[in-house]
């Protein structure tokens, strides 16, 4: 097999390697990959038995690797050559794979990726001694699924405009020419956008660019440090030519938003289907589930698991802009929604009103890294919680002591999920349904849905 591209370690990583007494010589080592780590790297051992995590490799492969970062108990490495390839290895779909900080599993077949996610979840549950049914899988397209992205912009010393993402393991930006995990309507904008920024009077004033695919089509938001009228005209011409909506956010401390082309003043929405669909307006600072098809399947499964909900009281914790609250309210449930950001609670309540569901939803701002005071979670019929990666340990302990009959936990981190589910099981719950949702194909990230009953 061919030699693989040289990966340059960041300066601080290089310094750590040189300073570390346990670092490998800066040579290359041969090894056989034993297994995949949870975050999708091949694991082998150095001659002295130290674990080495080699990115972009698969179990069973014989590889030549070079260590780029050394720690006391393990090393991190990149492959130089694949001597014996796994039959599960595939050609990565993106030319930037290995450099880009986004995807980490493009070298594995989609079946391998999904099996790995199921095994990762099982392993976390086993570590916590949680008794659970075999996880099922929800999945959509393996590429072209991301409906939101943030692109960085940098102008290098030669005046060349770089539009792209951060490098793997670094803060540094690199230029992209493609991103096959984006929905086609967003991916096709990469080159024209770069061209447009290059032709601005002041490309250095561009901070970052956010792309959203919505019910109204593509919406682009450009962050500008300064308002330059000629550049606004050029951005407007670009938006008209591409048939997209475009707004600019100008200034640093108190930025102002200006719509320069399209429908921004009416808002952008995402629709969730059902017998009676709901549409959610969102803003660029709001949390949005990036994979529309998998999100729809999650909402469908939630509805299927939770059965008839008319007149039920549902507490939706970490509610965002109402992704679960509104479909549940549509089924007749009374929703108490809690969310940390005031702006998203406001949006959730606006969304409830716009969908004729305001009499079914109350929204509250609350910091859910702590137990929720003044609300009797036990008297709800169902608690839905969908925390960020840190999980919801305090809430899980509270629910373990005073929780309702049923809890639906949606999680983007299997380790903190398993920790919290273990608390719930100690409190008398058992896992009755378990599903892995492949929300982020080509990466090792997994989304999980767990239904627990007392
Ligand atoms: C994974 S998102 C889920 C949002 C929503 N359920 C959805 O499906 O779109 C997690 C949400 O938790 C909110 N959040 C994060 N930390 C929080 C905290 N300490 N207290 C309350 N909400 C928090 C975020 O603002 C975000 O909206």
UniProtKB/TrEMBL annotation:
Q: Where is the composition biased (Basic and acidic residues)?
A: 16-30
Broadest EC class?
transferase
Q: Where is the composition biased (Basic residues)?
A: 1-14
Keyword terms, alphabetized: 4Fe-4S, Iron, Iron-sulfur, Metal-binding, Methyltransferase, S-adenosyl-L-methionine, Transferase
Which residues fall in a coiled-coil region? Answer: none
Q: What range(s) does the TRAM domain occupy?
A: 21-81
Ranges where the record places region Disordered: 1-30
- Tell me the active site: 412
Q: Which GO terms describe its molecular function?
A: methyltransferase activity
One GO BP annotation is: methylation
Residues annotated as transmembrane = none
Binding positions (S-adenosyl-L-methionine)? 289, 318, 339, 386
Its EC number(s): 2.1.1.190
- Enumerate the CDD domains for this protein: AdoMet_MTases
- Is DNA damage set as a keyword in this record? no
Q: Which SUPFAM superfamilies match?
A: Nucleic acid-binding proteins, S-adenosyl-L-methionine-dependent methyltransferases
Tell me which PANTHER family the record gives: 23S RRNA (URACIL(1939)-C(5))-METHYLTRANSFERASE RLMD, RNA M5U METHYLTRANSFERASE
Family stated for the protein in its record: Belongs to the class I-like SAM-binding methyltransferase superfamily. RNA M5U methyltransferase family.
Q: Under which name does UniProt file this protein?
A: 23S rRNA (Uracil(1939)-C(5))-methyltransferase RlmD
């Amino acid at each position: 097999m061919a030699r693989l591209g040289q990966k340059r370690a960041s300066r601080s990583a290089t310094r750590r390697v040189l300073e570390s007494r346990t670092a490998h010589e800066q040579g290359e080592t041969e090894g056989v990959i034993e297994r995949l780590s949870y975050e999708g790297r091949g694991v082998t051992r150095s001659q002295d038995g130290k674990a080495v995590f080699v990115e972009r490799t698969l179990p069973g492969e014989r590889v030549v690797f070079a260590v780029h970062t050394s720690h006391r108990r393990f090393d991190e490495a990149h492959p130089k050559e694949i001597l014996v390839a796994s039959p599960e290895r595939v050609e990565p779909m993106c030319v930037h794979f290995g450099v880009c900080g986004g995807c980490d599993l493009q070298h594995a077949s989609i079946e391998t990726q999904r099996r790995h996610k199921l095994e990762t979840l099982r392993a976390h549950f086993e570590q916590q001694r949680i008794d659970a049914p075999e996880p099922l899988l929800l999945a959509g397209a393996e590429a072209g699924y991301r409906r939101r992205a943030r692109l960085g912009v940098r102008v290098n010393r030669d005046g060349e405009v770089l539009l792209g993402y951060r490098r793997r393991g670094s803060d540094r930006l690199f230029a992209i020419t493609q991103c096959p995990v984006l929905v086609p309507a967003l991916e096709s904008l990469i080159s024209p956008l770069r061209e447009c920024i290059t032709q601005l009077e002041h490309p250095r004033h561009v901070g970052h660019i956010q792309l959203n695919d919505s019910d109204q089509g593509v919406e682009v938001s450009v962050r500008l440090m300064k308002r330059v009228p000629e550049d606004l005209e050029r951005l407007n011409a670009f938006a008209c030519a591409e048939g997209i909506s475009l707004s600019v956010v100008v200034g640093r401390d108190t930025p102002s938003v200006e719509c320069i082309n399209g429908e921004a003043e009416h808002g952008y929405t995402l629709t969730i289907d059902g017998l009676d669909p709901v549409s959610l307006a969102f803003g660029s600072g709001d949390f949005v589930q990036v994979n529309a098809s998998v999100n729809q399947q999650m909402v469908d499964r939630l509805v299927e698991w939770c059965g008839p909900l008319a007149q039920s009281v549902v507490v939706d914790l970490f509610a965002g802009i109402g992704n679960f609250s509104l479909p549940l309210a549509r089924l007749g449930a009374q929703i108490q929604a809690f969310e940390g950001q005031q702006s998203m609670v406001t949006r959730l309540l606006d969304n409830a009103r716009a969908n004729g569901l305001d009499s079914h939803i109350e929204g509250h701002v609350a910091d859910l890294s702590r137990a929720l005071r003044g609300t009797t979670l036990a008297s709800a019929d169902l608690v839905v919680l969908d925390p960020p990666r840190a999980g919801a340990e305090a809430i899980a302990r509270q629910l373990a002591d005073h929780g309702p009959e049923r809890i639906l936990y949606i999680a983007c981190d299997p380790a903190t999920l398993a920790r919290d589910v273990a608390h719930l099981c100690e409190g008398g719950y058992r896992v009755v349904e378990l599903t892995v949702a492949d929300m982020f194909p080509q990466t090792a990230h997994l989304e999980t849905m767990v239904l627990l009953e007392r």
